[in-house]
Amino acid sequence: MSTGPIAMRLLRVLLSFCLVCVALVSFAPEAWAFCGFYVSKADTSLYNRASQVVIARDGDRTILTMANDYQGDVKDFAIVVPVPVVLKEEQVRVGNPKIIERLDAFSAPRLVEYFDSDPCAIRKVARPSAVGQATSERRESAGNRAADALGVTIEARFTVGEYDILILSAKESDGLATWLTSNGYRIPQGASQLLQPYLRQKMKFFVAKVNLAEYNKSGFQSLRPLMMAYESQKFMLPIRLGMINAQSEQDLVVYILSPKGQAEVTNYRTVKVPSGDEIPVFVKNEFGNFYKSMFQNSYTREGKKVAFLEYAWSMSNCDPCSADPLNSDELRQAGVFWLTPNGPYRQVFITRLHVRYTRDKFPEDLMFQETSNQESFQGRYVLRHPYTGEVQCREGQAYRRSLPVRFEREAQTLARLTGWDIRDIRRKANLTQTQTPPWWENVWPK
Questions:
Q1: What are phi and psi of 257, to 5 degrees?
Q2: Can you tell me the distance from the alpha carbon of 118 to that of 126, in angstroms, rounded to the nearest whole number?
Q3: pLDDT digits (tens, 9 = 90+) for 142-181
Q4: CA atoms of 146 and 343, how far apart (whole Å)
């Protein structure tokens, strides 16, 4: 790839920045000056089936956005979602899928890259504060009669964008399942049983299918997200219905936007993903595999029944930024209703929660709460490139001697995070020639 004038200017700026870093640090044998920048991110494209939901919540007011990752003929698409109240037409909208992509990119766990400076450039280096830590640690009558006979009431019917929407209430889950099936909604076997808890809670059912005429008229190539606004004390997300025909683990990423601070799951533990670790530089070319392995390893270690916090930060800034923060217009498209042009400033704090769930480990829907905790957190993994220039000073020689120990520590960290074989890691990191195995390794079986 050729380097044009703009790229050269950018390179000069970066090099100048690194020289400033060198001038601001001092020497310590166990820590070295380095400058860094964001390299890549672990977004939802890593997963074959990753549902995404955005919840903008303030008090009892909620705007919920559901991203549709439906694969297949749109004429077969239909969803049934329990909702706490009867929704009117004006409370339902179609959203912009790019907004969810923006939220994903902004909050995704990221890889950052640093380069050691010349250890001989200066003699005094101040120890950097916690490498890898973020600097400041989100149709009519006939149908109605048939419904009545089954104990189902059609509370509302309308079309929004490419979707025909029904809001239903029901007395019995068998009646609701029968009504849905007789009206062309394909529901899996066993749905009645999972519908019962929502009926006991007097919840309603948001039912949507594609209006083909509207869809063809719209010109869109895929289904857009559905958004709904409502007021309810229930701060929850129904996930149980999504497990009816699931044969394997499912991934769900929830972006919660709040004016207060972090949101958390109340009926399951919320655990931070491992973060801040230095790992071998070859992971730069294998970051997707690294993050999937690391997440699976953490998921298994935590008993497969926790929600993982992957990101928590004010939308006004980021460090390092894997994407620009969303602007005010984008945030309103994401459902943030407390931003008014001339009103007082209220922040938007984003919490990104990643849940991998199965029927047996998640017997309840997700229940959330807002908190005032504004602690910043990000899943962040560090690559440190060693200095490769000549060194002819005492400090440089000490630096060279320290590298094998550092590389082995990074290899051991990667093995602990991912469960990868340490021998494969050493081979990829080119440690097989430079690292002498412990004297007992050939005596005791592995």
A1: -110, 130
A2: 14
A3: 556 566 677 899 999 999 999 999 999 998 888 888 888 8
A4: 49
